[in-house]
Amino acid sequence: MYKLLISDLDESLLDDTGNISATDLASITQLQQRGVKFVPNTGRRFTSVQPLLTQIGTVNQPNEYVISYNGGVIVENHQNKVLASHYLAHEIAEQIYQLARQRPDLGVHIYTLNEVYTYNINEDELAYIHSRKVRTINFDEPNLDFFNQRPIVKILVANLEHQKLITFQQKVLATISTPLAMTFSSNRYLEFNPAGIDKGRAVLELGQKLEVLPSEIITLGDNNNDLAMIEAAGMGIAVNNSIPAIKKVAQLTLTATNNDNPITEIYHRLFD
Questions:
Q1: Carries keyword Hydrolase (predicted)?
Q2: What pTM did the predictor assign?
């Protein structure tokens, strides 16, 4: 019997316009009525998903949860209580930022616990951010001294050309000796978290807190940063638009893409 359904948001639960369908909202309600908790697991900050939590009925509710920042923070929804947090060392974030500033073709997102700061963001990236209803703060400083008293959860670089992200990843590996968790997401980002921090570890951490076994957990994802949670769950599921690496490790690949009510397909295939 499954007790948790933990889902990525962009390109998995949400359609290409950044919205969840009424059909999937109804299916989530049916799952909740059967005792299955629905938990978003996202690279975003937890405050940016409050409108979604309102839609699914878990906003500000005790014993309901969000995993954010690619596993960097686990939050109980009631009063947004932080249960676990893992921050990047400031000097590592600074090194990544300085390397990115040498590349005018890369945008940068800097995530603190409650805010997202962006540097060198082009119009396409800005439109994508706005479509996801994410509020950002423009940042154009030569260093990250501003964050000395504001711990950084993660940092990412943005470009639609994947090869440019790979090239930057290679530069980081050649320059920074400290191990890092590095993942690609949304076909536009290369994300940096502390070593060992990922969505899969957070899934297991939350499951342990709730006394839910991995075999009782379903995860849904589509991209590289979802790989660890697909592998961690008893039932790892790929939407049909997933990258090949996700489909390869998933126990189930849906016929539905993120635009075709994936939660409803899960409900019919596993709970009907």
A1: yes
A2: 0.91
